[in-house]
Amino acid sequence: MHNLHDLPRTLKESCFRLGKTPESEREESQATFHNLFLHIHSVRVHVRTLRPTLTFGLGLMATASFIITIITGVLLMVYYKPSTDLAYQSIKDIHFTVSTGRFIRNIHRWSAQLMVLVVLLHMARVFFTASYKKPREFNWLVGLGLLVITLALSFTGYLLPWDQLAYWAITIGSNIANSPREFTDAIGITKFFDPGGLQKRLLLGANYVGQDALIRFYVLHIFVLPLALVALLGVHFWRIRKDGGLAKPEDPPGGLAEWGGERRPVFQPLATKTYGLMALVKGKRPPVNRGPENTVMSWPHLFWAELSVFMVTVATTLILSYYYDAPLKELANAAVPENPAKAPWYFLGLQELVSYSAFMGGMLIPMIVLVGLALIPFLDRRPGGEGTWFGTSGERSVFWQSLLFACAVTVGMLAFTVNYGWLRSWFPNIHQVWIIAINPGSLLVLIFAAWSLFILKRNDSVRLSAVALFTCFLVSFTLLTYFATVHRGPNWHFYWWPSQWPVH
Amino acid sequence: MSRLDPPRVNRRSFLTLASLGSFLAAMGTAAAGMLRLPNPAVLPGPVRRFKLGPPEQFSAGSETAFTDQNLVLFRDDEGFYAISSTCTHLGCTVARSKDGFACPCHGSRFNSKGGVVGGPAPRPLPWLEVSRAANGDLIVNADNEVPEGTRYSV
Ligand code: FES
Prior knowledge:
The structure holds two protein chains of two kinds. Chain A is mainly alpha-helical.
């Protein structure tokens, strides 16, 4: 009877090992340390890390939107049927009859879009704060992997409703996978060596876009890619912890702990006190009399910060989902694509490149960009500038110069092709190899590479030349995306405004 | 022993290396074997031989679009020919324009014989094999390409 009476208390104590709100630093560190979900954090964090303007909470926001996407995705799986005959109807059911179905689907879509956007911004912030430098090179690579998986998740996601967008996206996507043929055909070796054909076969499972393709993309979307993402995310977080938290500049000796304009409880190493292992962040032995300075307890400071970023993400997603419905186009029609047939915004820049050459724009340039991004931390090995926006001298001016330069070059290139066409319009019989090699996309890459070499020569700094290159790519990705979104109309013609599109 | 002698591998490290190597080889082979599964042995797909009706139905100088079959059938003085309306760039369906075909997806342009005149398409639109069935109907085999200019005369 007595035990029964005590049940609520004992139950609570068995769940939460501390059993009460922590009151001392010791208990705060235990609260962090003894909880599966919290103990990925270190017990104390550096005050700089908590400054909102260092990270803007972008990585956390990406994680938050991923969690929202997972939860809503599982809910959608209850009704979605991965069959070419039923998929479209099941989405309609979700949208119109299932209670809260429309809202949940909207949330799924908006959090996914938010995730793509935030992941891109997160990459930009890690780059511009030089946070990829030693020992974080590997985590930069993991991050690139996460970026690719995020995009793949989005792509496989919008294929599933089997509407017009889905059908033609699969068609175009699988043909991009096939596009190495453009090259192997051009030099006449497809018969012996056909990586493009293999990739297409693996994606479609058939010669034509149909049920086999839908099942494959479904499996990728709900199982393979999320699993891969979770695994990589684990590595990503674990590395942040092992690499000593977020990147930050070296502390000035004896620096003071100002945070948010007031003084917060700060770890004050006293000669008379010993610290448990749990207060250790890194290092080989307990730092007796030499505690990490300028750190505050994770509980509650870091957790408040995380919670608020999470709430902001949820609120953004909910508001967007309340006001804007996820689109559903007409049922897939194999006979007529939409005109223009456009990808979602994050692939439109790529679609513009693909409209110069499928192989170059769809495979080679993305590859080059990825490899280039992957190489950055291994080429730029001189320490300095970590954890501060535009940390090394001259970075800001190189950034602005590159921004202007890339704007001018990209806009010039687009204006030129719109007005004068390209090689094929001048020499109708030109060999395809020339189209692949010399097109506006590959020229942009070359010009940007030359610009960054010029910066390297001028400043003798790999960091500055990386800033130049990264800025150029970011700017031209943004401009191409904008251009393809607003100015490309039916038959991929240039129009000043969608309202000028011909009506048919 | 001079410095030029190869370093001796003792038995223990040899066995370690050998077992590690065989472990890796086994795992690699297993992975390669598993990857064979998603590579389909037979490629399911619709039959792409289309009966288009009796030849008399099409007058000389006519052109008929078969949207479901993704092809356009032409008849001129020399005979019949069929041009696929699947864009050779990334597989969208092209539409007839004033003087040829235009693709809605990335702006490839073809002339009325299927030749590329603009945009990213790497090859001309394929000409398809035309023949006749036993009952006299025209048949287009969309899986068989023929050289440009090949006509089928009745
Ligand atoms: S599919 Fe026709 S231009 Fe791309």
